[in-house]
Amino acid sequence: MGRKKESKTAVCPVCGTRVEPTRTWNLVSPIPDSKGRITITVMGSFECPNCGRKWRGVVSKIKVGGAGVEVEAGGSKKVLGGEGEVKREGEVIELDVEEILSEPEEE
Ligand SMILES: [Zn+2]
């Protein structure tokens, strides 16, 4: 088949079955790379329905910062140039922090 595999699937190292992650989580690297970008690595827990093999692996990598967002998944890279959306996302996080720091409302 010539179709590209889905970005979130991995191939079982034992039998070669395509497996979707049972669980995913993000690892954020606190140190920017040489281009000043933060790398967010999406990790996945996999369990092969065919042979029962369990393993963990990288599902995708997202690089944030600099000129845009670079998404690396399934062996392919996508560079998103949308400055506005990325910045808006940062502002949302700042608002969340303010909310946490503000005093609770009086009853
Ligand atoms: Zn397997």
Quick tags:
alpha+beta; binds zinc ion
Account of the protein in words:
With 107 residues, the protein is an alpha+beta fold. It has one domain (10-101). It has one helix at 83-101; strands at residues 10-11, 18-19, 21-28, 38-47, 54-65, 68-73, 76-80. The longest helix is centred in the C-terminal third of the chain and has 19 residues, at 83-101. Zinc ion binds at residues 12, 14-15, 17, 48, 50-51, 53.
Quickly describe the structure.
With 107 residues, the chain is of the alpha+beta class. It has one helix and seven strands, in the order E-E-E-E-E-E-E-H.
Strand segment tally: 7
Kindly name the structural category.
Answer: alpha+beta
Biggest beta-sheet profile: 5 strands, antiparallel
In angstroms, what separates the terminal alpha carbons?
Answer: 63 Å
Low-confidence stretches: 83-101
- The ordered string of helix (H) and strand (E) elements is EEEEEEEH
Percent of residues in helical segments?
A: 10-25%
- Judging from the principal axes of the Cα atoms, what is the shape? elongated
